[in-house]
Amino acid sequence: MSDLKSKTVNGLKWSAFERIFxxxxxxxxxxxxxxxxxxxxxxxxxxxAIFIAIGQVLVDSGFSSAxxxxxxxxxxxxxxxxxxxxxVSVVFYxxxxxCAPYIAKFYEQPExxxxxxxxxxxxxVNSFCVVPRTILTxxxxxxxxxxxxxxxxxxxxxxxxxxxxxxxxxxxLVGQTLVIAICNAIFINVIVKWIPPAKFDxxxxxxxxxxxxxxxxxGILDTVYNNIYQIIIGKKFSAFFVGQYTQANQIxxxxxxxxxxxxxxxxxxxxxxxxxxxxxxxEYYLLTMKVASLFIFPIMAGIAIIAKPSIALLLGxxxxxxxxxxxxxxxxxxxxxxxxxxxxxxxxxxxxxxxxKVEIIKKMLGVIIVAVTMRYGIMAMCIGLLIHSYISLLIxxxxxxxxxxxxxxxxxxxxxPIWLTAIFSCFxxxxxxxxxxxxxxxxxxxxxxxxxxxxFALVFLxxxxxxxxxxxxxx
Length: 475
Known about the structure:
Distance between the termini: 20 Å
Radius of gyration: 22 Å
Strand content: under 5%
Structural class: mainly alpha
Number of helices: 19
Helix content: over 70%
Number of strands: 0
């Protein structure tokens, strides 16, 4: 177990470094490109995002999770997954190619036809990454994954900036997507040096699809739901407003998704190793949840309070609508990593059936909320998303409690004090900034100094045990 703990801590450090660094670059690029390109370019990409996202879910089909969980995996298992991944990507690309004119017609945006056909190529390229990435994850070699990801993001970002500077519009974003995909495919395969055997095993496929199939369905449901806002806004309003929402959603979600990716990437293989030791797994689960809360809660609350002055200062009035949405969306994504940790438990326990059931319940609830709020505008839709996020967490916990002793009360006792501390600290800082000055720059400075000071002081006083543990890990 000590070796596993060492791998987990090392993996957490490298995974955190990779996600924070690469997503940090992406965040900066989003701000720079938003200044160059404006809302419409991001809106056009947002309109086709759902099709690319569904394609990515289909390409993986839950096979990577199935492979990680399988104790006696072989090269034939890997090769079976690879040939399936690539085949699905090619079939889906041709389907997307044929549907491109209808997508353009649906949104009444002619340029979407060529844009969809070009950006769809990234799916085929990404299919060659699924198995090599899984191999490195199984080995918990997150250092190699970090090198590949960061290098790809830097190269893709440079390409995007050059294209944007030369007034290529939305094609700067398309070029960035393709270059990142191609570079990552090359780098990750060179690092792994795995040559697949020329064999597709039906028995192996049945096992992988038997576990991954339900994850596939839940993944599609999740993807459709997460992108339904772009579809409705794009059809009901315009590419300009899709751009406002897409930008707000990206800025709000990047920190939460980064933390979630780190947690899932490291803890899923770790929990899989512990799947027969329920007490140890629950101990590590609560620890992971509390450490995640300690970092993500203040970050998301902080984004909410600095959104308006930051957007006004950096991007100008053309993005003013996005600033309002960021406040709501940041609070919605605040608990996203806790969602992910709960769902990890269901996968580790092999209950992909419960995983699917949970997703169906949450998405049905989400569709009802969207149907009710869409008539009142984009802001109302985002408030609905906020409400849905917190209800969904309770649903996740209820089903986690069916397999563990980690019920609602036990989890809320762990995370509620940290949540309240983060909200209180940021609210006080926001109030002081608004009271003392109307200057955007000085408001940001006051908030960024005062909120962390209050938060860390309160956390140190009330959460000394977890703070000491984090400091010991850092050493």
